[in-house]
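CORE FACILITY INTAKE
Project code: CF-77B
Contact: R.S. (postdoc)
Sample description: multi-component assembly, two entities in total
Requested service: structural model of the whole complex
Turnaround: standard
Below are the sequence entries exactly as provided by the requester. Do not edit them.
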Amino acid sequence: MRALAFAVALTAALAGARTAQAQDASKEIQRYRQMISEGSPAELFELEGEALWKKPQGPKSVSLEKCDLGRGPGVLKGAYARLPRYFKDAERVMDLETRLLYCMTTLQGRSPEEATKRVFGTADNPSEMESLSAYIAAQSRGMKLDPGLAHPKEKESVALGRALYFHRAGAWDFSCASCHGEEGKRIRMQDLPVLYKPEYARPIVATWPAYRVSTSQFVTLQWRMNDCYRQMRTPEPNFGSETTVALIHFLTATAKGETYRGPGSKR
Amino acid sequence: MKTWGAALAALLALPAWAEPTPADVQKIMQRDFHPHGQAAMERLAQDGVQRVCTETRDKPPAEVAKALEADQMKTIAFPAGNLIGNIAVPVDHRHPGARVGRLQVLNIIPEIHRGDDPASQGRHPDEFPVTAERCPARCAPCSRPGRR
C-alpha cells in the first residue's frame, strides 16, 4: 500500500515537473519573441517599400502612387487592414499582393510575367513585392482588421478558404489542419496555432507580413501559403491565385477585429 | 411560434456561405497550381481516405475509421529479414548500464563492445565489422571496448 502511494506521488511529481518545464519553455519562447519584436529590421523594408511605391517603372514609366487598394487611388492609410476584399474593376477578391500585381500591370503597363518574375526574395536580395508589402501594411498599424465580408464574392472566397484549410491532399496526406488543427502542438520552438479559431488567428494574422529572424528575410502571406504547400509536398500554388487569396481571406476573416500590429517579427 | 424558432435556429446554424465540395476544391486547385520539381499535379487528386477525412473534418465515424485504418495497414509492406541488420546490442561505455537509443548507435559505433571474440581485440571497428556471428547475444553486455 505504501509502495502504491509512493508510486502515485512520484508520478504526480514527475507530471508536475513536466508541466512546469513546458511552461518555462513557453515563457522563454514568449520572452524571445518579445526581444526580437523590439528593434525589428522590418522598418528598413518599409523604407525601401516607400521608395519603390514612388518610383516610376514599367513601359508607362509611372509610379504606383495612384494604385487603388480599396480606399481610393493612392490612399494607404488603413488600406491593408481592410484586405482582402472584392474589387469591382478586377471582378475578383484580392489580397494586398494580388492588388499590387494588378496595379503593376494596369498602371505601369508591366507584363504579369515580368512583375511576378521574383515575388519572393532572399536575405541578400529582397523582392519588390516584399518591400512594398512592408510599407503598405505599416500604414494600417493600430487599426482593426476588417476584411471584406459582405459581397457575395467575398463570402464565396471565405467559404473556399475554409474548405481549402481542411482539404487533404498530396503525398503526405496533409491539410492545413494537419498542423494547425489541434491545440498545444509545437514544432521545435514554433507554436502551431489552430488558425480556424479566432483566439489563435488574431495575434498571428495581426502581425503579418513580417521579418523572419531565422532567414533574415521579410516574408509575406503569399509566401507563407506557398511555403506551407511546399511543406505539404503539393505542386506549387500560382502567385495571387484564387486558392492562396481565399486562404488568406479565411484567416483574416477569422482574425477580424484584432488591432493590426505589424509588420511583425517571426522566429 | 416554436416552428419559427426552430427554423430560425436552423438558419443560424448554417454556414455563412455554402462551402464548395471537395470535388469543386480539387478543380480549383488543379487550375491554381503548377507542377514543381517532383511534385506533379497528380498529387492533388484525393484518394478515398483523404476524401473521407476531408468531408468529416478528420473525424470519420468509428466504424469507418476502423475500416480505413485496416485497409491502410494492409498497404504497409514490412521489409523481409532483420530490421536492424546484424549489429550487436550496443552498450554505451561512457554511461555503463545505460540503454542506447537507435539513433545514438551511429555516434558510438566505434565504442560499442566488440564481443568476446578474440579476433576483435585491439582492432579498430572499421577493421572488424560487428556481425551476429561474431558477436552473438551472449556477448552483450560484454566488457571490452573496441580501440578507437
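Facility notes:
- The first strand of chain B starts at residue 33 and ends at 34.
- The two ends of chain B are 87 Å apart (CA to CA).
Invoice: internal transfer
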